């Protein structure tokens, strides 16, 4: 058995990270050269910023939230540098390969968590700064990125070296997944990109394209109304004839002028045939979904996409990874109308396909075994009561409970137990609740019904 690491190792790593942050803050404040400020494209900061000559720069921005953003030269829109903002101070080292005459700062999508008064500052610096992370042997989370228009490295934030939350440690990989698609989204390809489907199937792409159009559905759940613009944008990417189901918690948290009434009105205006239901806040997104499933709401559809406004507030810490987690799942499942249509045809061409979810969210994984074991007790009880056997060793699911599914594949869970599913009142446990057990049971029940569970790869980069 390997020896336990010395106790001082975590302290030394934490101290190194803190010193690195202090160095970057001091470098920014005392760096020679004048800072050039520019703001969001929708609300430019004092007009366009001064031109940025080719060379190396430090970019600094203080952000209250997480989102995909980019810096663009308006005279040359193909010159665009995308990255993922995280809460707090963000510092990047960038080497521009060309002169930028009219640089602006813009959102790539979402606009969630980023305020209109956020501005980006740039200072000309030395090229050697790009080597500092590797010289200091620090785990810079995104590494060096090379684009045709620039080379850049995220100097801050760095991942925490020590954390007692396995979900958080695992979720540190999710910003990488979002970041991989930023170049395509910055170049305007994100919405039109057709996500690749699994290559393991015996049915060829040509056969899938020749299949008839599927009767599509999208079911979404909303508790945090501040996320409605993002969820609405995802819903509107679906084909016009797709059936929409929107469930909203009866005690949903309002945000400014976004209320239950405004959300309902906008859904009705966008899709008059949509089903909007106000549900008790029990079981989070799983509770209302199980109710729709029991009522046969999806019976006339060939495949349905399930999404929800995930936040993942874990003891109030690092809630931003819930935003990244949600954005990655939604972008993977509903990237564009063309991709949604193609997913439907893929289901039609693969009659044994039951569940299709994001590859990087597929569990179980070794690094989360200890956490997943905590939910096995209730999951085992459900398996024994409904199927008479313990199938926990065959459990497979998608973290966040967002995936495409064939309604018939979930037929084994269509009938709730006598008295209904006993979801507890909020605040529900962070782990080990009925909602978590059903999250694991939904794809597993598809396997037990004779259907396959496949993974949807990330969209390929050009």
What does this entry look like structurally?
By secondary structure, this protein is an alpha+beta fold. It folds into 2 domains: 7-158, no CATH class; 205-456, Spore Coat Polysaccharide Biosynthesis Protein SpsA, Chain A (Alpha-Beta Complex), CATH 3.90.550. It is 31% helix and 24% strand. It is built from 14 helices and 18 strands. It has helices at 7-30, 132-135, 166-171, 174-180, 182-186, 205-210, 228-236, 260-270, 286-294, 320-333, 337-349, 369-374, 376-387, 434-448; strands at residues 36-39, 55-63, 67-73, 76-85, 88-96, 103-107, 119-124, 144-146, 150-156, 216-224, 243-253, 275-279, 303-308, 353-358, 362-363, 397-398, 403-405, 452-456. A 7-stranded mixed β-sheet has the order 12-11-10-13-17-14-18. Strands 1-7-2-5-9-8 form a 6-stranded antiparallel β-sheet, with helices on one face. β8 (144-146) and β9 (150-156) form a beta hairpin. α4 (174-180) packs across α10 (320-333) and α13 crosses α14 (434-448). The chain starts with 6 loop residues before the first helix and ends in a 6-residue tail after the last strand. Residues 1-9, 42-48, 110-114, 159-163, 183-195, 199-207 and 458-462 have low confidence and may be disordered.
Task: Look at the structure and give the mean pLDDT.
Answer: 77
User: What's the helix count?
Assistant: 14
- Count of discrete structural domains: 2
- Head-to-tail CA distance between termini: 45 Å
């Amino acid at each position: 058995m390997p020896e336990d690491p010395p106790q001082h190792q975590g302290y030394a790593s934490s101290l190194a990270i803190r010193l690195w942050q202090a160095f970057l803050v001091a470098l920014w404040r005392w760096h020679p050269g004048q800072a050039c400020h520019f703001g969001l494209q929708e609300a430019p900061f004092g007009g366009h910023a001064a031109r940025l000559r080719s060379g190396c720069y430090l970019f600094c921005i203080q952000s209250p939230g997480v989102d995909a953003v980019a810096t663009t030269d308006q005279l040359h829109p193909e010159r665009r540098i995308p990255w993922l903002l995280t809460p707090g101070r963000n510092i990047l080292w960038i080497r521009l390969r060309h002169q930028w005459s009219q640089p602006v700062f813009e959102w790539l999508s979402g606009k969630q968590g980023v305020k209109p008064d956020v501005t980006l500052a740039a200072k000309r610096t030395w090229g050697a700064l790009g080597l500092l992370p590797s010289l200091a042997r620090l785990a810079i989370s995104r590494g060096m990125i090379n684009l045709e228009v620039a080379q850049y490295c995220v100097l801050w934030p760095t991942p925490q070296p020590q954390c007692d939350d396995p979900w958080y440690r695992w979720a540190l990989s999710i910003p990488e997944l979002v970041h991989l698609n930023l170049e395509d989204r910055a170049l305007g390809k994100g919405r039109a990109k057709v996500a690749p489907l699994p290559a393991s199937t015996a049915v060829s792409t040509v056969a899938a394209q020749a299949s008839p159009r599927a009767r599509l559905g999208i079911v979404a759940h909303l508790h945090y109304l501040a996320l409605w613009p993002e969820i609405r944008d995802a819903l509107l990417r679906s084909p016009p004839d797709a059936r929409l189901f929107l469930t909203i918690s009866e005690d949903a948290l309002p945000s400014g002028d976004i209320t239950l009434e405004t959300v309902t009105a906008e859904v009705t205006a966008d899709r008059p045939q949509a089903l909007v239901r106000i549900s008790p806040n029990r079981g989070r997104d799983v509770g209302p979904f199980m109710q729709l499933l029991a009522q046969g709401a999806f019976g006339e559809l060939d495949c349905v996409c399930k999404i929800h406004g995930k936040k993942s507030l874990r003891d109030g810490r690092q809630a931003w990874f819930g935003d990244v987690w949600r954005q990655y799942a939604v972008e993977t499942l509903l990237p564009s109308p063309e991709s949604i249509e193609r997913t439907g045809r893929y289901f039609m061409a693969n009659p044994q396909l039951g569940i299709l979810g994001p590859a990087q969210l597929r569990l179980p994984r070794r690094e989360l075994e200890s956490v997943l074991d905590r939910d096995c007790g209730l999951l085992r009880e459900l398996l024994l009561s409904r199927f008479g056997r313990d199938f926990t060793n065959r459990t497979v699911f998608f973290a966040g409970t967002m995936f495409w599914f064939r309604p018939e594949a979930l037929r084994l869970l269509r009938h709730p137990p006598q008295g209904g599913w006993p979801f507890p009142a909020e605040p529900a446990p962070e782990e080990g609740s009925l909602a978590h057990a059903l999250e694991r049971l939904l794809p597993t029940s598809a396997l037990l019904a004779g259907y396959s569970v496949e993974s949807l790869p990330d969209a390929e980069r050009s």
